[in-house]
Amino acid sequence: MDLDSGAVVEVAQGKDAQALVPFWKRLKRSRAKIEAVATDMGPAYIKAVRDDLPKATLVFDHLHIIKLYNEKPIDLRRAIAREANALKKKVFKKGTR
């Protein structure tokens, strides 16, 4: 989005770096004017932006950050449950009473 005009500059389809190739081609010399790029947290997009716009600030939208933040406790709970189940199977083997 152009912060001066409010116009959306690009919405790329796909999750790989190739999705941004048409955008980079259209930009050509105006790349130097780009100060920041907002994107999701996909590794391919992050790498593409860092490679093609090394001076631009990379910004992640808050929706993706909050989603990631909310998933961590769930992932931790599941890991603890798996570990507890494995430990329980080792300690309380069937038929050992």
UniProtKB/TrEMBL annotation:
Residues 2-94 form the Transposase IS204/IS1001/IS1096/IS1165 DDE domain. It holds the Pfam family DDE_Tnp_ISL3. This is Transposase.
